[in-house]
Design a protein that fits this description.
84 residues, alpha+beta, two-stranded antiparallel ribbon, 2 helices
């Protein structure tokens, strides 16, 4: 049986600290410099956000690149027992 690389997405949530004169100013400053905001060190998974990407062209592309050694990921192998 073939192995397939299936892209998934999920959301993490956390907090950052911003110096500003007001809450509104802090939010505005964060939005204006979002590219400089770090990943949160208190991040946690947002419940029910796990999503299987169903674009099969991505699956085929990712699997092909992985098989050729050109994809720098090591996907988690998931063993799912199903009746097909």
């Amino acid at each position: 049986m073939a192995k397939w690389i299936i892209p998934v997405t999920y959301t993490m949530a956390g907090h950052i600290a911003i110096e500003a004169d007001s809450a509104e100013g802090a939010i505005r400053k964060a939005n204006e410099h979002i590219d400089k905001c770090p990943l949160c060190n208190d991040a946690s998974y947002l419940e029910d956000s796990y999503c299987i990407e169903e674009d099969t062209s991505l699956v085929e592309l990712d699997t092909d690149l992985y098989n050729k050694g050109k994809l720098n990921i090591v996907p988690e192998m998931v063993d799912i027992e199903t009746e097909e």
